Amino acid sequence: MDNMLCDELLQEIFRRLPSTPSSSLSVSLISKRWLNLYRSSKTSLSLRFLPHNSVIVSLSSLLSFYPYLSSLSLVLSDTTTNSTSSNNTSSTAFFDHLLLIVYSCCSNLHHLRFLAGSVSVSSLLSLSKACSHLTSITVSLSRPLFLNWVVSFSCLKELCLYVCSIDGVDDEIGRFGFYLNEELDAKFGLETLCLSGIQADDKGIGWLWRNCKRLKKLQLKSCDTVGDGESFSSFILCVEGLQEVELRKCRSIVDGVLLRLAEYCASLNSLLVYDGGSREGLLEFISTCRCNLQKLDLRLPLDLNNGHLSAVAMNLRGLSTLRLQSCCLVTGEGLKILGTALCSSLEELALINCDIVERELGLLATLGQNLRILRKLDLSYNEMLLDKEFISMLVSCNHLTELKLRGCRRLTSMALVSISKICKHLQSVDIMNCPGIEAQAVEFFVLNCPQMRQMQIEENKVSDIARTWALHKVIEVTAG
Hints:
This protein has 480 residues and is α/β, with parallel strands linked by helices. It is built from 19 helices and 17 strands. It has helices spanning 2-15, 21-28, 32-41, 54-63, 89-105, 121-130, 171-176, 204-211, 229-239, 251-264, 279-288, 306-315, 332-341, 356-359, 363-370, 387-394, 413-422, 439-448, 464-472; strands at 44-49, 71-76, 111-115, 136-143, 158-167, 192-196, 217-221, 244-248, 270-274, 295-299, 321-325, 348-352, 376-378, 402-404, 428-430, 454-456, 476-478. It has a 17-stranded parallel sheet. Helix 10 (251-264) runs parallel beside helix 11 (279-288). The model is unreliable at 81-88 and 168-181 (pLDDT under 50).
């Protein structure tokens, strides 16, 4: 009985350890018993591997040590991604075998991220029977697309599909193709959908749009279209209830999607557009949308200008989060107009790699004076940002809880000392790749920030004294 209580106590301690390689290594050095208890306490596991036959045996053996996994990520190593991009039927069979091992060993999974390689429809149907509690699936598929297997996962809330350029196995057309136009009932509860690599001839997408009647979050990445011609009209059916939309590298469809969102979606509260769009389409969306947008995240170096910021200031006064990256055509005048308009609502501001921050003296001071309720500030990768300009903003933003300065190479220890004196509510800071900040300043910072809980900084800048105090004050120090 004492041994059982001791094991349970150890497992509870292990559950509270950070999921880092160092934690696993430290535990394994004590004893095999501790290592087994540590593994059995884990409910989440992430693995990267090389596509070799020995992986099948190794994976089966490894997963047997983790009997209570509810979340598993299995990803092909980056070094082999390109070499496996032209896989044939035999490689699909290999990845199907890997998936079989997963659902044979981990029947309690709720979250599965399987990006080892494209898998067949039949293996996904088998997965649905073995892991009936799955709520989130990320998987790669080959063309032609057959998505009817989705309905077999009765608990599914989140689906991420990465479409490969390889043609699928021909015999699955006959086995599953007759379901293509079948409508589903209202029990189909998918709420989050992520699609990557969709092309104009992918006909199965229309079926998905027609049946996603409860969709709240949509992510599109590197998509040339939302499907064939019929799919776009079906796309409108799932737009109405959307709350979050992310469009990454989808230049050819951004305008069409934004137009539909402005016209049909009144529930949207978060929009992200990266690397693709048009000035006119974005301006029309900002000027005509009927939604109460809370979060706007844009990385459009050549498509975003002061006209868009003026439209945001006029029509999106309820914004609580604004993130701008690489905004080459924006000037200080546009940001000042924005700061004045959003003074009573904006709680998070990111100006990442925006040269206007470095180019226009006094801009940050003006923004700080207007945006006094800011809680989160991200000025990462403004390499020429100086202490004086940064501190001039900081003195007005003394309620910050999160601050990111990664890659601000001209900032010095003076900036960090000023942060510790001004921002007494700060809980998280990122000062990676800031060579001007020295170890002595880091030590002073750790000693004088009572609310600090997380720091991202190079290990060689954390002295023994700083590390001891970080442990004493429960501050997580990482080099991520």
